[in-house]
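Tokens for chain A. Residues wanted.
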């Protein structure tokens, strides 16, 4: 489904195409937080708040690890999409192989240093002794899927760059379904507790990884030596390293923001930590939905740039903004109407649920605030303008930390959430200014 000369390049024509590509990605993306919500539901019904808090802290740790390596998917999507637009199949194959090589090395290193890594990360995140013990147990069970998780990022990046959204959907649903089935079996059938939750997640990652590697081999294996002869080309690796470094730093800033959010919440007690964890699960529902349109933006923007098609590029960007905003408005309405019921499903502990209800209005407003930053992320990744993406996120992080230190002391958790709203607004403002300042195709 590469970008081709389309006779209908109007806003309505591209909006239809964006929806066709985005809906399977949205479904696949939403499956992940739904499975995470099941993990949270299981932990929320274990006796005591330390289980829910422990899963929340460990979740921050794995976000730090795997969102930090999000450059493996993002860079791969942008580079493969541009190769598809230019009609260069060999270049797309080489981007896959280079990404898998980096994923394998990084995943093995994570396994080697897992003990000091988990210990140090949980010490920095805070929380009570019982919360940290639960988090460590979960983390050591889940971390064995690190090489598979990183490889999955590369495979997903290739499929999105090629606009093979149904294949991406199938692989992700396979992994999530395995995760859910194994977790329920280990926790309720074999009474493995928190270890079962972590092992279930790991099994899902390995299942989708093996299936994805098989798919890549069947569809992209080289027909001759020309397909792999330039794998270690110095110039290509320098470009890849520069883009990966920029996106890593950008993702690192995002992860620092969420980690700082968790840390500031934990400093106010385990009840606030657990309440914020419930609300962040709702934010995950939002972000994975909006990311569906951002991913389509990466693929279509990259393909249009590779084809040097300015007219299609402008229509694509307008269409993605329109579709993303409509989804955000629906999400805001859903949180307003169903928010209390969703929180009641996540935990039967009234004190934590009541605490979360106090801050639910922030989640009602968040969709229409955050949508612009998510979509612009996709545009800049597809264009591989990674340096600007890095700088905008660093500035937004600095604003968030400064506001959170100041407002949390006087307004408590409300000040923390107001600071997070400012973070999302700054992110969108910076990227919007940069997009208007310099066109994507010159």
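Reply:
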């Amino acid at each position: 489904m590469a970008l081709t000369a389309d006779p209908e390049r109007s806003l309505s024509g591209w909006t239809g195409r964006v929806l066709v590509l985005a809906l399977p990605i949205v479904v696949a993306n939403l499956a992940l937080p739904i499975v995470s919500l099941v993990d949270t539901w299981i932990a929320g019904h274990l006796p005591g708040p330390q289980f829910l808090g422990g899963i929340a802290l460990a979740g921050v740790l794995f976000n730090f690890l795997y969102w930090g390596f999000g450059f493996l998917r993002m860079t791969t999507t942008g580079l493969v999409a541009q190769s598809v637009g230019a009609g260069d199949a060999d270049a797309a194959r080489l981007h896959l192989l280079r990404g898998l090589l980096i994923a394998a090395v990084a995943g093995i290193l994570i396994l080697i240093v897992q003990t000091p890594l988990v210990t140090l990360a949980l010490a920095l995140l805070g929380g009570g002794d019982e919360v940290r013990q639960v988090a460590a147990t979960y983390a050591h069970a889940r971390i064995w899927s690190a090489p598979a998780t990183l490889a999955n990022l590369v495979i997903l990046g290739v499929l999105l760059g090629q606009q093979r959204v149904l294949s991406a959907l199938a692989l992700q649903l396979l992994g999530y379904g395995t995760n859910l089935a194994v977790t329920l079996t280990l926790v309720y059938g074999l009474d493995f507790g928190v270890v079962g939750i972590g092992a279930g997640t790991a099994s899902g990652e390995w299942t989708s990884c093996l299936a994805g590697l098989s798919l890549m081999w069947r569809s992209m294996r080289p027909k001759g030596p020309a397909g792999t002869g330039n794998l270690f080309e110095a110039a290509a690796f320098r470009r890849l390293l520069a883009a990966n470094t920029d996106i890593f730093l950008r993702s690192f800033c995002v992860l620092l923001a969420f980690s700082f959010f968790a840390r500031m919440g934990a400093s106010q007690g385990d009840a606030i930590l657990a309440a914020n964890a419930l609300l962040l699960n709702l934010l995950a529902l939002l972000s994975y939905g909006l990311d569906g349109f951002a991913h389509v933006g990466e693929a279509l923007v990259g393909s249009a740039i590779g084809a040097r098609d300015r007219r299609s590029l402008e229509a694509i960007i307008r269409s993605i903004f329109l579709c993303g905003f409509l989804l955000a408005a629906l999400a805001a309405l859903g949180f307003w109407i169903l928010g209390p019921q969703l929180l009641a499903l996540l935990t039967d502990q009234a004190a934590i649920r009541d605490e979360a209800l106090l801050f639910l209005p922030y989640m009602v407003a968040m969709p229409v605030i955050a949508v612009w930053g998510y979509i612009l992320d996709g545009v800049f990744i597809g264009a591989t303008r990674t340096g600007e993406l890095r700088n905008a996120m660093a500035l937004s992080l600095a604003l968030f930390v400064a506001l959170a230190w100041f407002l949390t002391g006087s307004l408590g958790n409300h000040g923390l959430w107001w600071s997070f709203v400012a973070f999302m607004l700054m992110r969108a403002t910076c990227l919007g200014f940069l997009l208007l300042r310099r066109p994507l195709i010159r």
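The CA atoms of residues 302 and 425 lie 25 Å apart. The first helix runs from residue 11 to 44.
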